[in-house]
């Protein structure tokens, strides 16, 4: 049986609110982010979850703790492989500052490629899925990780350029016993119609 991996983007931080690139910089949730985590948990209670896992960065782990407590699940377990994409020298910059300083993204020193993000995150999550056949698991991660996995799984059809993975959104992947991934929904959040992948 397929395993469902629901990847939830962490709640908002002050750097999110300021449109700053976070990457591996360990910025905590703000009050809006904590409210988003609680709202996500209330939506997720409609399903039966076998466990909660998280990136080790504090914004993700606190989101996972809030969700686990609300769903009365055991404390989340950390998965280092789903920490945020490393953005090198543009961490802490706004988009405008990044463009002014470096121009094209390919010129940024220390920037982790999306392919490298997938190469570390997907095998770890596939192993986790195979340890829980037919179950539903929650993993709190980051926009850079979720977006990279989504592009890989859909051959870059999702997310489209105008689409965004919001803080607190749920993004569900199915993993087959043979390790095949598919996207079943993305950017699902309170009051928002669930998107479906392009056929």
Architecture overview:
- With 199 residues, the chain is an alpha/beta fold.
- It has one domain: Rossmann fold (3-Layer(aba) Sandwich), CATH 3.40.50.1240.
- The chain is 34% helix and 17% strand.
- The chain has 6 helices and 6 strands.
- It has a 6-stranded mixed β-sheet.
- Helix 2 (31-44) packs across helix 3 (58-70) and helix 5 (114-131) crosses helix 6.
- The two termini are 22 Å apart.
- The model has no long low-confidence stretch (mean pLDDT 94).
Distance between the termini: 22 Å
CATH superfamily: Phosphoglycerate mutase-like
The secondary structure category is alpha/beta
How would a textbook summarize the main sheet? 6 strands, mixed
Looking at CATH, which topology would you report? Rossmann fold
């Amino acid at each position: 049986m397929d395993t469902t991996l629901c990847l939830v983007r962490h709640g908002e931080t002050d750097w999110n609110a300021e449109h700053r690139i976070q990457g591996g910089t360990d910025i905590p949730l703000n009050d809006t982010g904590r409210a988003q985590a609680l709202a996500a948990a209330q939506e997720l209670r409609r399903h039966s979850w076998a466990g909660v896992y998280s990136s080790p960065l504090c914004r993700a782990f606190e989101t996972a703790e809030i969700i686990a407590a609300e769903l009365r699940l055991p404390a989340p377990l950390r998965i280092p492989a789903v920490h945020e994409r490393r953005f090198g020298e543009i961490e802490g910059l706004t988009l405008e500052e990044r463009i002014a300083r470096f121009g094209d993204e390919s010129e940024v020193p220390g920037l982790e490629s999306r392919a490298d993000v997938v190469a570390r995150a997907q095998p770890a999550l596939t192993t986790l899925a195979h340890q829980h056949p037919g179950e539903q698991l929650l993993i709190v991660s980051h926009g850079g990780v979720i977006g990279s996995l989504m592009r890989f799984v859909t051959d870059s059809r999702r997310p489209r350029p105008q689409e965004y993975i919001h803080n607190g959104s749920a993004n569900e992947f199915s993993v087959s016993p043979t390790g095949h991934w598919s996207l079943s929904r993305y950017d699902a959040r309170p009051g928002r119609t669930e998107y479906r992948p392009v056929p």
